Q: What sequence folds into this?
């Protein structure tokens, strides 16, 4: 059933023109590495939603302060799509294929992501949100209020998705910890607990790294223990 | 702050080309009239999701049967957009303006709707869903599994949205009721209880009507009581 692998229909021109950008979100993740796999896993992660000039008005968000949670609809930064109808969810170890519509994978016919975030506050014309699983600079195409009676289903069964309850133990010396601002420490530790290594990798000798809040974070993982090895101020070239 | 009312940027060409259709949903509502205002309000409403040929494959939905609920992302049938940053939610009586991003109104910069439905079963290559608030023939642009740990927030506060707990009492004679198939009766009664009248209207003499499951349903409303007046087989011209 893989006859569609190279369908030209799938490979749409990238971005421009198909969906209107209404805002940009700014987060602590300069790349996709380290980003939690779903929204809400790390409540300490803060993001700032900055509206485009034409939507940057108190009118556009009037009444939003009465809601605790929001939906962000956003554009995946997936430059192209292989056209496969199946994907390999990282949660399943990366070897089992599931249907694209049975996963939240970014490799899908229309590159729209869906994330529930908490609205922390409205700061001037910006929204401060928490729990976002988005890369810095991600384009937002819609914001909708989370309506509990329609969106909240405690009885829902989650298929093969897990709540990510397995966590690594993080060893993080006070000396290294002191290199990053105090208000970023809790978020970083929780991100590390979620195991930010790329899938299919389990080499205790290897040093992994990712950018977070303007810092380059280096670590190793041995068994269930993640040890932070280096924290350096990050400079974009 | 309404200087953007006539922004040409807002008025995008209608539909074609901006988002790829992956499926069509078939429901009992031939028009927008009578459709509940959010998904999940009438669980008895069934819909059939029919995939486009290139996505009509067991591969594309492999693993979906493990989930009880789905997100449908779909295209609003709003031919044009006034460009206003505020809308008047029917729930507030239609006279109060709220920001477009504080409501689920269809009049928004990108015409994407978001509905949570229950997956009843997979019927061949089609999905049978319940609780859908969509018009017959609505284009689906994405289907994502409902992931409880990321999507379900029982602590969420719902702003001015209400759970629609006010219901009309429906008077529906056995004679009229017998004109529609038995398996459609419960859904119709619940749709009527939700008060399908257009907003701003409260005339006890007036006969209202809408199409449902191939029938034309006529009724009056006096106080909190809705009386079904006529049920006729509906024929499209």
A:
């Amino acid at each position: 059933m893989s006859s569609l692998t190279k369908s030209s229909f799938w490979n749409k021109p990238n971005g421009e023109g198909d969906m209107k950008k209404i805002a940009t979100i700014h987060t602590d993740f300069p790349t996709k590495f380290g980003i939690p796999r779903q929204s809400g896993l790390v409540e300490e992660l803060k993001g700032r939603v900055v509206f485009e000039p034409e939507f940057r008005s108190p009118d556009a968000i009037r009444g939003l302060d009465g809601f605790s949670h929001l939906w962000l609809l956003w554009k995946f930064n997936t430059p192209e799509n292989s056209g496969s109808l199946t994907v390999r969810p990282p949660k399943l170890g990366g070897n089992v294929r599931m249907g694209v519509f049975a996963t939240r994978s970014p490799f899908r016919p229309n590159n729209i992501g869906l994330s529930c975030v908490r609205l922390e506050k409205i700061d001037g014309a910006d929204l401060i949100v928490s729990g976002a699983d988005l890369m810095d600079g991600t384009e937002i195409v819609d914001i909708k209020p989370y309506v509990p009676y329609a969106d909240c289903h405690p009885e829902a069964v989650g298929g093969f998705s897990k709540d990510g309850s397995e966590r690594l133990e993080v060893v993080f010396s006070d000396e290294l910890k002191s290199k990053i601002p105090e208000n970023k420490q809790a978020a970083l530790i929780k991100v590390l607990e979620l195991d930010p290594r790329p899938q299919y990798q389990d080499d205790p000798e290897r040093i992994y790294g990712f950018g977070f809040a303007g810092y380059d974070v280096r670590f190793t993982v041995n068994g269930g223990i993640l040890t932070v090895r280096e924290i350096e101020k990050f400079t974009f070239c």
Remarks:
- Residues 1-17 of chain B have pLDDT under 50 and may be disordered.
- Chain B touches chain A through 74 residues (CB under 8 Å).
- Helices of chain B lie at 148-151, 174-177, 182-193.
- The longest strand of chain B covers residues 112-123.
